[in-house]
Hints:
heterodimer; A: alpha/beta; Rossmann fold; six-stranded mixed beta sheet; four-stranded antiparallel beta sheet; 10 helices; 10 strands; globular; B: alpha/beta; five-stranded antiparallel beta sheet; 38% helix; 23% strand
Amino acid sequence: MPTLPAISVTDLNVSFGAAHVLRDVSFSVANGESFGLVGESGSGKSTVLRVLSGLNPVWSGDIAFGETVHAKKPAKSFFRQVQMVFQDPFASLHPRMTIDGILAEPLAIHGIDRPDERIAGALRDVGLDEGFRFRYPHQLSGGQRQRVAIARALALEPSVLLLDEPTSALDVSIQAEVLNLLQDIKQQRNLTMVIVSHNLAVVGHMCNRVAVMNGGKIVEETDIASLRETGGREIYTRELLAASRRVSLSATLGAA
Amino acid sequence: MTNDMASDAPLIEVKNLAVRFHTPTRIVEAVRGLSFTLGREKLAIVGESGSGKSMTGRAILDLVPWPGEVSAQRLAYRGRDLQAMKPQERRGLRGKHISMVMQDPKFSLNPVMTVGKQIAEAYRVHTRVSAAEARERALAMLEAVQIREPARVFDLYPHEVSGGMGQRVMIAMMLIGEPDVLIADEPTSALDVTVQAQILDILERLVTDRGMGLIFISHDLPLVAAFCDRVIVMYAGRVMETLDAKDLRHGKHPYTQGLLGCLPDLDHPRQRLAVLDRDPAWAGG
């Protein structure tokens, strides 16, 4: 019997009033795989993540995480399995809570034992020492905050991690550190990841397979190697690739 | 005579610029000993956050926030000493002769005023014209930054326009006074790659057509290598090296190489990305 994919999405549709923002989106992600979603802003890629994470209760279609069918209003246990990291580390951490408080909250909600050890462990896993526990978010740099956001997501030991533009608010040098961290964590824990980005280079670095979205539809699904070689089937994919390569090392500097 | 000299002078001269912040516990030196001249060209200042690149742009416009203190051996616009000017004179320069485009249009536009009115206002501050004439100019400017329906966009509020359109509105507002120098502080970092390309095309065209000088502040090295003529690489308030944009890849300084090495590249996949190894000696001395 073939193993079930970690995430399977079939004919997902989302409308906000008259705006039909997702049209028959279908894809599946295998266990331990990294899957990328790319597209311009407004293409619906973040909405897909919001539906998967349970933040957007209005949708139709079939979604399953392994054997569990995704409910419109997921049970508490669901959030132990699926966690999300948001784009802006300046907006996603509570400004009046210490790092300790931020990391303790999900543990308290789910009634998990030994919170003290787990918080220390979660910080260590993302490369922050214990001195950070009693600081506030404004005392941290952007890269450190994003590490805290990743630590918060990982504290519950989820099997699926959803990342919405995890590095687009960060400097290139910090981006490299965060991407390396995510790679390490993924290998250690056999995490399934879905990464949304408009940066094709970042997705290419992190993922094996990528879906290109435009106008609420998946216009192309391909693996990174063939995308690199063929440049994509759809015109829109080619455009995106050209735009990425214009700001990518090999095209601009290599040609000069 | 003096006029002739002034027209030969470079657009911007900066010699030994320093920006310091006096805090209760210590003095933070945001910029230390920066020197450059700007002609009619595209000059990039690159570095990480906190390297002092934005403060350099602000120091030229006298926009360094309190308690910052700017000092320089020479700070001049077309041969005119900026430090000797009265605050009113410098205010006269801002927008009319030297303009600045900020990173995020969401925070730089007035949320309770239509974008068209804001552009027209920027024009009327420096030029005595009727409201109708300012409106005409604003519409023409919106068209110049490739907004398809200028008349419709004119009456929209900032929250009703997308990020890319907001940034075009900002550029229109900054260029309506026809400045000689444009300082663009990360003008495309908040935008999608495809929109980014459009904004750069607009900037490129406007800069070339009007013969302006552009200071392009960014942390994106490949982007400036493709877009600018010369690059200044900054770290911890100091210049690491200055080089032609096309030679950026062959930059000698380890910091430049480090910044280039830590980028993921679609065409050359690697298992792990290089991480910057910051040498304390770069910041010292």
